[in-house]
Amino acid sequence: MAPDFSSLLSADLVEQLIEAREGYYSHDSISRLSDTQYDAMVEELSVREPQHPFLSQIGHHPISGKKVQLDHPLYSLDKVKTPQEFEVWWNRQDKPFVVISSKYDGVAVDLKYRYCTTGRVFLVQACTRGDGTVGEDVTAQVLHGNIKGLLLSFTPPLMHGPLLDSPQGGDEFHVYGELVISRQTLHELNLVQVGRGHKRFSNTRNLANATIGLQDLEEIKRRKLQFFAYNMSTPIDLHRKLYFLSGTGFGVVDYVTCGRAAPTSNIPTAYVSLQWSWSKDRSSEPFDCDGMVVAISSFGIQQRLGYTSHHPRWAVAVKYPDDTAVVTVKKLEWTVSKTGTITPQIVYDPVFLGGAELERCTLHNVAHVIDYRIVVGTVVELCRSGGVIPKFLRVVSDAISTEAVPHEDIAFGLPTPLYPSHCPSCGQPLKLELPDLKCYHPTCQAQLAMRLEHFLDAIDFKGIGEKTCDILVQSGALPFLESLWTLDASAMSTICGWSIGHAATIVEDLERIKQSVPFAKLLLAFQIPRLGRSAAKKIASRYDNPEVMFSKIHSGDAWWTSELGPNVGFEIRQDLLQYSTSQWQRLKSVGFIVARPTPKGKDGLIICLTGTLMIGREDYRKLIDASGHIFTNSLTRDVKYLVVGADAGSGKSAKAAKYGTAIVDETWLRNLLGL
């Protein structure tokens, strides 16, 4: 027989349901009701009061990414960075009574509460701030997350006055606050992460943001979220709202009130200045706090001042100075970017900085290491600017006693070289091109994805983009970029997640394009420093194919330095010899064939374009090249024709007249190209 609760008053029924729910979800309590009794009581309440707000808390499950339109916009805050900037803001006000509160660094949430007929209040919806107008529904996470400082239901104490004038059942209001995770909890969770061989959580703000979006309710409880309220939607003064919330049992941000009377009208500026100076040492604070919020308390003044499209005019955030830390370099690591730049990273003992446990800091480039003579043992000062990434500030104690000497001497003239001579990824020699240190070796795995993308773009293959290049390289199927042409449709389908039909089409296109690659495009695909489109065309015009080119390089052909310049020509020639000889052999082994050059003779024209044309300049470049002529962006004495489009300036036309270059219109060019 089903339990009979008809004799209970509705208020008593709800109280027992609340007690049972709290016992069920608490780790240290046991529910006194069986599931059958609980369900029967819920059924009884739904018959008596089908709109009772307690019923809206039942049956919630986490919903990933569900967007919610906020009832009221949640604005950002205007920001100042120093007490002096705050004083300027304060002097624009009429010396009002203000609330100065801590600006905790977490996740802003909007909690909607609803009155029932007995006067009790229930949480009916929780959502994140989002973009200020649309947030994400996190009601289930809040209801079941055991969040300290957040009430799921309460009876407003009379001693603090009513929230609304004569509140009725169904009336609603909102409580706004911040969900945060303490530094101690972050430390404890990171110990577990490291013990499991997982990556550390970076900081409390990101961890709180990730936690409130979890689907695993038990994991949310384990991460110990806490709530601190800072405002409400009710039309009363701010200090009364905070007093009410604190007396009711909510967690409330730390705050003080000041500035009401004329003799104390300057107190807010003095208080802000004092707190700002104290904030430079926040390492002992339990929660991350990146500033103060100074808000005018009077609801009437708030209404009069109003809002901009971005922030309220009656409040401002005073940001604390960036956290800094002094650390000793324990290790210097070098990483290779996708572009071949070798980037230094200093490693030090973990420090808590700006809400995160940090143990490494990336420097700008190798010149940073050389200029500041950073080695193991160097003591440096870091900051976490804007609470984002650690940033090098200065050297506190130099571990090298030598006087400053030129880069090339200090690099290898010390007991420990300041930077590596060989790539940490492929082991090949590096090139110092200050401010950078570069690896140009074509087989370097760290930059293989970028090289593959560039190679395909240079030979005008459009079927594979950046993301697919990353997937192919990460799969381990490409020891060299040329290995792409060894994959069949089945392998491409498996690696890239394509249908077998699409993969077969890509493989066919790859086979087709390798049958006739213009030599100039192949030269660009080699990715040699300082070998641009103009130099590639000159080299391709000089030599018919790579074999001829490499043989002439070995024989010491003086054309390179005479035509391309003594420095540029020498470097291009040496780099082609060092990096591209073996690459061409690999390309030949997978079937690459260089297209036979189009005979130019006296008909090969150098053409320059200016002004607005019917099709894009890049498209015209391809058409001009394909027709055996030469496209150039620069107007020199060698240019035979200047094609002038609409809205062209007079500069190039005047220059063409001076050089004796023929000036023609786009119709002439289209006739030349057979368009």
Automatic annotation (TrEMBL):
<dbReference type="Pfam" id="PF03120">
    <property type="entry name" value="OB_DNA_ligase"/>
</dbReference>
<dbReference type="Pfam" id="PF01653">
    <property type="entry name" value="DNA_ligase_aden"/>
</dbReference>
<dbReference type="InterPro" id="IPR010994">
    <property type="entry name" value="RuvA_2-like"/>
</dbReference>
<keyword id="KW-0436">Ligase</keyword>
<dbReference type="GO" id="GO:0046872">
    <property type="term" value="F:metal ion binding"/>
</dbReference>
<dbReference type="InterPro" id="IPR001357">
    <property type="entry name" value="BRCT_dom"/>
</dbReference>
<feature type="domain" description="BRCT">
    <location>
        <begin position="603"/>
        <end position="675"/>
    </location>
</feature>
<keyword id="KW-0235">DNA replication</keyword>
<dbReference type="GO" id="GO:0003911">
    <property type="term" value="F:DNA ligase (NAD+) activity"/>
</dbReference>
<keyword id="KW-0227">DNA damage</keyword>
<keyword id="KW-0234">DNA repair</keyword>
<keyword id="KW-0479">Metal-binding</keyword>
<dbReference type="InterPro" id="IPR012340">
    <property type="entry name" value="NA-bd_OB-fold"/>
</dbReference>
<dbReference type="InterPro" id="IPR036420">
    <property type="entry name" value="BRCT_dom_sf"/>
</dbReference>
<dbReference type="InterPro" id="IPR004150">
    <property type="entry name" value="NAD_DNA_ligase_OB"/>
</dbReference>
<dbReference type="InterPro" id="IPR013839">
    <property type="entry name" value="DNAligase_adenylation"/>
</dbReference>
<dbReference type="GO" id="GO:0006281">
    <property type="term" value="P:DNA repair"/>
</dbReference>
<dbReference type="InterPro" id="IPR001679">
    <property type="entry name" value="DNA_ligase"/>
</dbReference>
<keyword id="KW-0862">Zinc</keyword>
<protein>
    <recommendedName>
        <fullName>DNA ligase (NAD(+))</fullName>
        <ecNumber>6.5.1.2</ecNumber>
    </recommendedName>
</protein>
<dbReference type="GO" id="GO:0006260">
    <property type="term" value="P:DNA replication"/>
</dbReference>
<dbReference type="InterPro" id="IPR013840">
    <property type="entry name" value="DNAligase_N"/>
</dbReference>
<dbReference type="Pfam" id="PF00533">
    <property type="entry name" value="BRCT"/>
</dbReference>
<keyword id="KW-0520">NAD</keyword>
